[in-house]
Structure formats: structure tokens, C-alpha cells
Amino acid sequence: MNTVTEYLGRNARQYGIVGALLLIVLLFQWMTGGRLLLPDNIISLIQQNAYVMILAIGMVMVIVAGHIDLSVGSLVAFIGGAAAIMMADWGWGWPAAILVSLVLGLLIGAWQGFWVAYLGIPAFIVTLAGMLIFRGLAIVIVGETKAGLPQEFIAIAGGELPSVLGFAGALDALTLLIGVLGMAGFVFSQWRARRGLIKHDLAVEPMGIFLAKNVVVVVLIGILTYWIALRATPIVLLVVGGLVLLFTFVLSRTVFGRHIYAVGGNRHAAELSGVRTRLTDFMIFVNMGLLSAVAAIVTTSRAGAGVAAAGQLYELDAIAACFIGGCAVRGGVGRISGAMIGALIMGVLNMGLSILAVDAAWQQTIKGLVLLLAVALDIVSKRRGAYA
């Protein structure tokens, strides 16, 4: 086989996920008569699925380390309800409520991480207990819906950046600038990563694939920028984008990130190599608690109120996004970029099926089948690799 063929064979799953997303988008664009990619629907897709993307960022780290977290949906309800009470009942300003909510998420994450890392209780059990505990507490503290939240807080999930740079024809100039910066940043990061691999005599993708990947991504960012610029940039898109960039850096460029992969790949070998596996496990759940708090803020902002029933099945959406995006069932493998693609696949399925007026029960059925297929493909590909 030539180099290109070998590379595509090794990375078939990664490129297959991207291809699946594009195929699903084109299919629903055709089935909905072009309504899927209307600017309003693009904005709604981002705003409605921001919570999945935020939770999936943390869930990738949890799954890569060989754990699972079933409590995040309940944490969203509990922390979001607490934030609403701070603002609606106690009269706190929204910045103070957000700050305390983030601290609360850190404390809950530390509490769950302690049971997993230092007492050795499986994460499945600890977070299952957390799911029950914090759902019950959400019902207790919220009771009925807590509304009357500040407009500045509601704008976090539902608002858009003001058009401070004016318009280029019918397009928002600020959105165009953000899109251009995004394209330049992606190309620069890819070029820098490639140079780093070459410098250390590590394998790199063939130049043809490297250039084609960059061209395709730049074109897709340009198309997305154009659609969004017909309206304006959602504030929550900047929140999600910032978190993706930050935690991609953490996973790929920091000691903590390398330790997560080491623990998930082979815990015993990681311990022999000097990795503090307990501290790594602890910090993973602290981080998951923090991101659950961010998702709670976004969810409560979008709803405009604290609701005890918020966050239902959010943990399953986040876990599904990770597995669809290429995370391995046994840990050690996974990328935040893949989880974001998985979240978009789930979001496009939701929106496309909703536009087609498909019953909610059938929507759940279809998403379950997609998840099952994704995990089955992962297992089959690993078995073929083992016998190759």
C-alpha cells in the first residue's frame, strides 16, 4: 500500500465520523427542502446543543481515563436551580451567581472524585449515587420554577454579539472577522503541530492529505461563518469555542493530559512510570464538576428560569456524543474534536427530525441506534486490528 492509503486505513474512523456528519447534513437538507441550513436554524442548532458540547468536553476526559459519569444531568438541574435562587430569591447579581455556581461545581466534582480516586469506589456507582442525590436536591431546593432572572444572564445562551463593526452588505462584519480568525488559527495550529512532529522525527500525515484537510475545514468554517453572519454571532458559541480550544490544549499539550491517556491506556503501567493515578482521577472529576456548572449556567440561561426537571438525559447525550465521536469503550482513546462532531451529529439528527415532525419517541429510537452502531464499529475495527 502507498503512504496515503496506509494513513487513511489507520485513520478511517476519524475521517468516517466527519464524512457521516456531512452526509447527515446533506440528507436532512434535502429531506427538509433546504430548511435545515436556514440561518435561524443554524443559530438554534448552536444554542440548543451548547450544553451537550460543554458536557462532552469533560466527558471525553472521563471516558479516556476509563471512567463514566452519570451525574452530570442532575448537577445541571441542581447547580442551575441554585443559581436561579441566588438571582431570583436572594437578589444577587448575575456575575456573583455565576461565580458561586462554578465554585459549587468544583466542590461537587471534588466530592465525587474523592470517592472514586481515594476510596476506590467505581465511578459508575459514585456518579449513579450522585445522579440520585442531586436530582433529589434539585427538586427540594427549586420546588417550583424560579423565574425572573436578569436579562444579561439570559443573554448568555439566547443572545448574540452586537454588530459593533457594522455590516458588509447583509453580513455582520464582526462575525466575518471571527470566522477569518478561526480559519487562520486552525491552519496555524495544524502547521505548528506538523512542524513539531517533524522536529521530533515522528510520523506525520502525507502532505496531500494535510493540505486537503486544511482546505476542507477552511471551506466549512467559511460556509458556517456566512450563514451565521446573516444574523450575528451567538454569545454561547464563543463560550463553547473557548472551552474547546482550552481543553484541546490541556489534553494534547500538558502533562495532565498525557497522564489521562496513560491512565486510560494502561493504569498499572502508568503507576510504574510514576504517574499519580489517584490525583489524576480526582482532578478529572473536579474538572467534570466545573464543566457541569458551566452547562448548568447555559441551560438555566436558555430556559430563563431554574427548573428542577432540567438536565434530563443530559448525561446520556454527552456520553453518546463521545462514543459517536470516537472514544473507545475501554478508555485510552478519544479526542475533544471527535466529541464535538458527535455532538453535532446528535444535534443535526434532533433538528432534522423535528423539522420533519418525527415523533419524539422515534427520535430517541433513532439516536439509540446511531449510538449502538458507533460503538459496534469501534469494537469491530479493534478486533480486525488485533487479527491483522
Features:
single chain, 388 residues, ABC transporter involved in vitamin B12 uptake, BtuC, two-stranded antiparallel ribbon, 16 helices, 1% strand
Oligomeric state of the chains in view: single chain
Question: From the alpha-carbon coordinates, what is the Rg to the nearest angstrom?
Answer: 21 Å
- Termini separation (Å)? 15 Å
- The number of strands is 2
Shape: globular
Q: Biggest sheet: strands side by side, in what order?
A: 1-2
The pLDDT mean sits at 89
Task: Give the CATH level 1 class.
Answer: Mainly Alpha
- Count every helix, treating DSSP H or I runs of 4 or more residues as helices: 16
Structural class: mainly alpha
Q: Which sequence of SSEs, written as H and E, runs from N to C?
A: HHHHHHHEEHHHHHHHHH
**How many domain units?**
1
Portion in beta strands: under 5%
CATH overall fold name: ABC transporter involved in vitamin B12 uptake, BtuC
Uncertain ranges: none
Instruction: Characterize the biggest β-sheet.
Output: 2 strands, antiparallel
CATH architecture: Orthogonal Bundle
Helix content: over 70%
Summarize the structure in words.
The protein is an all-alpha fold. It has a single domain (3-159, 234-387), classed as ABC transporter involved in vitamin B12 uptake, BtuC, CATH 1.10.3470. The chain contains 16 helices and two strands. A two-stranded antiparallel ribbon has the order 1-2. A hairpin with a 2-residue loop joins strand 1 and strand 2. It is globular, with a radius of gyration of 21 Å. The two termini are 15 Å apart. The mean pLDDT is 89.
